[in-house]
Structures are given as structure tokens and as C-alpha cells.
Amino acid sequence: MTLSTHFAAHPARATLLAFAVSGLFGTPSRADGEARLLAPSGTLRVGIYPGSPTSMVADGAGIPHGLAYDLGGELAKRLGIPVDYIKFDRVADIVAAVHTGQVDFTVTNATPVRANDVSFSEPVLAIELGFLVPANSTIGSIDDIDKPGVRVGVTKGSTSERMLATKFKHATVVPAESIRVAIAMFGRGEIDLYATNKPTLYEMSDQMPGSHLLDGNWGREHMAIAIPRWRADALPLLNTFVTEELSSGAVDVIQLQAGIRGAVKSTRY
User: Fold this and answer.
1) Percent of the chain clearing pLDDT 70 (strictly above)
2) What integer pLDDT is reported at residue 10 of this predicted model?
3) 3-state secondary structure 145-177
């Protein structure tokens, strides 16, 4: 699906987002220079992983949406260049690809560890971290988790894996290769619950009848645009882009269309 087709299908959104950043990139020559800085290949390569609305999901009509997907498309449109969506199984693989320059743009949790490998814009969205339990689970609250024999699924290479491996003293952290694999692990009884950001957990719950999120949270993720570190000169441009997308309500539209649940007001990370 091309960007033109996508926006033709959503004229109201296209109008809103056009007003959101009108004039942001100044003269054509300036826009050309910024396009070369952000996407030297001439195409903005956006890293996404299916299954999370903060990255990319498909709606009932099969149309893709997501924070990384839609913001990447918007930025490419403003720069006047094509967009190429490159799919990965895990967000850790996307961050590695941004680090090596195989990907130009993604949206992910802006952690200090990842900031060693990529440069981050100002925060776009803050989302709560939570736990998902299957139907008929004996785990009724977060306080019931850290016990011997409890197996907590996490995405391999994720922030959740790093944080929970040190947080829990008795429960066992079990890495899964992807969200799809994690759902299958639930079906085989290999994990007792899953930990990640709440938008992803809600997407998983929709595919697991009787499952539910535990009350409360164990932290927040601060989602921001990630680009290769050697392109940090582009950060003022990206921060202006983020400010305009937030102030215009465009990010609210993206949240609605992607079905992002569990988001809270964005703050500096």
C-alpha cells in the first residue's frame, strides 16, 4: 500500500496532519538537505515489528497503523521522499539495525542503554508496563508474581528482560523470540504470564480469550524517535516534528487508529 493510497483512504486525517507540520521543512532546498541527512539513500527506511500498536498492527480492514508506522510515513511525506517499511521480529533487532545504519527511523522506548547505540528525539508518548495472565490463572495481582515456580515471559533482548531479570528474586524470566511465539508459549503452558508495555499486552489479550491484564504497572516506557547516532544533527528537526505532531493532535489520531491502550501523558525521559 502506497502512502498516497493510505491518505486517500483517510482524507480527514491527511488534512489534520498536513496542517500539523505545514511549513516545518521550509524551502525546497532546505527540505532536500534534511532528507539527505535523515535518509541518504533517498528512501526513509522505517523499522517496524508486527503485533504492537506502538510499532505496527493491522486494523479490521487489513490497513496498517502504529506509532512507528504512521510517524515514519508522515516524516517521509514531509521530506518528499518514499518510505520503505522493514519488518523485524523484535524491537532489539530494529535498534541494532538503526545502530548500523540499515534502518533510518523507528519509534521505541528511549532507555539509557539504547541511547548508547542510537540518538533519540524528545518523547512522543509514555506508556505503562504491565503483566498479562491467561484465563483461569492463579496469579491475581502483581504481588503474587515473585514466587518460586512462576515463569514470566518477556521478549528476548527487550527492556523487560533486562529489568525483570534483576527485579525478581524468585520468579523465572523466560525469553520469547517474538510476541507471536509468546502467545504459542501460553498455549503450551510454558509461561504463566507475560510482561511488556500495555498496548502490546492488550493486543495479545485480544487473541487469548479469557486473558486479562493485572491491575497496576511496574513502570513506564517513554517512546521516542530513534535514528543513527552519527545523524544527531537532525535531532532539532525531529524535535520540532514531534512537538508539532503532539500539539496538533496528530498523535492522538494515531493512537486512536492504532488502538493504543495504556498510554499516559508524555514527559521527558
Assistant:
1) 87
2) 45
3) CCCCCCEEEEECCCHHHHHHHHHCCCCEEEEEC
Please choose, from the candidates 76, 51, 75, the residue with its C-alpha nearest in 3D space to the C-alpha of residue 65: 51
- Residues 58, 50: Cα–Cα separation, whole Å: 8
pTM: predicted TM-score of the whole model, two decimal places? 0.75
Cα 179–Cα 180–Cα 184 angle in degrees, nearest 5: 110
Q: 86: which 3 cell numbers?
A: 522493514
For residue 116, give the C-alpha cell: 548508547
State residue 23's pLDDT score.
Answer: 47
Question: Cα separation of 117 and 91, whole Å?
Answer: 13
Show the cell assigned to 80.
Answer: 518528499
CATH class of 3-127+222-264: alpha beta
The helix (run of H) or strand (run of E) holding residue 99 is helix 91-100
Average confidence (pLDDT) over 87-100: 94
Query: How much is the mean pLDDT over the chain?
Result: 87
Length of the chain: 269
Element (H, E) at 236: helix 235-247
Query: What is the C-alpha to C-alpha distance for residues 206 and 59, in angstroms, rounded to an integer?
Result: 13
State residue 33's pLDDT score: 78
pLDDT at 9 over 90: no
**What ranges do the domains of the chain cover?**
3-127+222-264, 128-213
Q: What do you get for the CA distance between the two ends of the chain, in Å?
A: 34
Q: Is the pLDDT of residue 261 over 90?
A: no
CATH 3.40.1280.10 fits 128-213, yes or no: no
Q: Does position 222 have pLDDT exceeding 70, yes or no?
A: yes
